[in-house]
């Protein structure tokens, strides 16, 4: 079974056009993102990222600090030793308490209000970077979990970025960088800021704190369905994808992503009529679901409905130009083939 990667922090001494947010705002927000350095029981150290969410309180991933014998936050060249920890082991979120950490506090947004294809940007310290780095991307999927959502976006990240910040384009903290799927074309996931808000009110623990594995580290059969569909999707095991997605749709009938993966499996199993119906239903529920529109166009092409596919591509272009370009390329190939066949 392929492993999932929480971009484990630990560096052992071992689409559409993005309207960039104001440079001044991004620069100011960088001061709210810090580097976390931990000392491990084996004598190695690890590095991750964190975000200041209240006075002298920094949120990061629990997998960054779990079982660490010492935790330090580094900002503006100064190192501050952690004095306490609040832990939500299940969601892989820990808030570390420090003394005298005088820097910008991030304004907390609302993860549940995010929309598909909404622009977002992340700030973190990938690869133990000396300065915080920024990536820009879009929301691609929202997976309901425990009264909030897991956020999948196009913002990639590397070792050391765990615990970094995801901001909406108005500068509010909406997610915490956490997890990527296996494989070359990885998916990138961020934890909800709602769980951060809840954690702020929890009692503090002493350091070191022995933690529990997060949801993403559970046995395969106990992981959320959004994780379980990835391997058959990437390996193109369409019967298995259909099986898991069908179970997902039955267990969580209001989760649109369950229908999305079910329809992808149906499309690749050449059940074009059923796939088209499901993609149309999905688009009716979420007008910003670019994946549904893209596959709807493919289904229409496969069914010989090029005029409908052309209209779908035009609609897709309004929310995801990159996917629309891919669909138009496939349309062009089909139209050229049809023209050659008809000797036009």
Average of pLDDT: 90
Poorly predicted sequence stretches spanning 5 or more consecutive residues: 8-16
Q: What is the number of beta strands?
A: 13
CATH class of the largest domain: Mainly Beta
H/E series: EHEEEHEEEEEEEEEHHHHHHHHH
Number of domains: 2
* Terminus-to-terminus distance: 51 Å
Supply Rg.
22 Å
User: Structural class of the secondary elements?
Assistant: alpha+beta
Number of H/I helices: 11
**Overall 3D geometry?**
elongated
**In order across it, which strands form the biggest sheet?**
8-9-10-13-12-11
In helices, the fraction of residues equals: 25-40%
Fill in the CATH topology of the largest domain: Thrombin, subunit H
Based on the coordinates given, report the CATH architecture of the largest domain.
Answer: Beta Barrel
Main sheet makeup: 6 strands, antiparallel, barrel
Strand residue content: 25-35%
